[in-house]
Amino acid sequence: DAKTTQPPSMDCAEGRAANLPCNHSTISGNEYVYWYRQIHSQGPQYIIHGLKNNETNEMASLIITEDRKSSTLILPHATLRDTAVYYCIVRGGLNDYKLSFGAGTTVTVRA
Amino acid sequence: DTGVSQDPRHKITKRGQNVTFRCDPISEHNRLYWYRQTLGQGPEFLTYFQNEAQLEKSRLLSDRFSAERPKGSFSTLEIQRTEQGDSAMYLCASSWGQGSLSEAFFGQGTRLTVV
Questions:
Q1: Interchain CB contact of B96 with A (< 8 Å)
Q2: Span B1-33, pLDDT tens digits
Q3: Among partner residues A42, A85, A92, which is closest to B108 by beta-carbon distance?
């Protein structure tokens, strides 16, 4: 019962920015947007999370729209090692310990 | 390495056999989770421990599955009388927090193949 919608796949050129969209139109006021990624044959890796303000860390930037119904994960300079499945997850409320993964977006970075 | 450790990484078993997986969380993390992931799907939540207490079990966790976390440290997931449908990647994760949101760190997973 994932609360997010993501495109199934996208390609990106190495060295260019990758913009990954996510729709979460039913998000509640106390729910956060989390992003994880999963490189082939590894466990998911935390990237970033946010509530309503834009966030940036060493891996990525997260842009959340003012109405909070959608967000974009930005990988500023994609490398081949960024090829992975990216999951956008809405998390919070009573079950804030749980991550509900959808199918994610398979991002392929091409040289 | 101080990350989440899972053992074994791969397990092949015959249908009907019992298997047990181990997860060692990041030291001092009080929350521990098990997830299952089948090919082409995102991970699905199975169960959650806060310290040694198992606080939630998904309906995906049938009677053949049991998880423990003695003394609130490592955890084991046992599957009895394995079926081919149990073939999947079993992921363990841990985090620190009591009600506050905190990022979960995942292990590399145990890939189970039931033949």
A1: no
A2: 579 999 999 999 999 999 999 999 999 899 999
A3: A42
